[in-house]
Amino acid sequence: MANMPDKPETWAIVLAWLSQHAPVLYAGGLSFLVALTRVIYGGGTRRQAFLEASLCTLITLGLIPIMEWLGLPQNMATAAGVFTGFLGVKKLAEIADRFADWKLPRRDS
């Protein structure tokens, strides 16, 4: 296996990237941990916990550009991650369906 080069520029680039994306990584990680803990606490299986946590993380990462578009600071991503992980995928889907029905009424066939 090849070793990572000991070039200071490489480490500087990696650390700069991590510091620039820290709020996003932190929000995704917290979302994953909160969802994982919630499902395990609720008596779910490991598979259910991992899938729920993964989906909550993806939802959190999808919410971050929307938050930026709304003009919210990037540090609010942490709160969005915890909120997403705590509510879970099913509850968020229910909320999204209610919002869509309110904003986009269905046509009567």
Kindly describe this structure.
This protein is mostly helical. Helices cover 77% and strands 0% of the residues. The protein contains five helices and no strands. Helix 2 packs antiparallel against helix 3, helix 2 runs parallel beside helix 4 and helix 3 runs antiparallel to helix 4. The longest helix has 24 residues. The radius of gyration is 18 Å and the shape is extended. The mean pLDDT is 88.
Short description:
This protein is mostly helical and about 110 residues long.
Terminal CA distance = 62 Å
As a percent range, the share of strand residues is under 5%
Q: Unreliable segments (pLDDT under 50, ≥5 consecutive)? A: none
* Biggest sheet record: none
Please write the string of helix (H) and strand (E) elements. Answer: HHHHH
From the helix content, strand content and strand pairing, which structural class follows? mainly alpha
Tell me the overall shape. extended
What's the alpha carbon Rg, rounded to whole Å? 18 Å
The residue fraction in helices comes out at: over 70%
Put simply, the count of helices is: 5
Mean pLDDT: 88
Comma- or semicolon-separated keywords:
109 residues, mainly alpha, 5 helices, extended
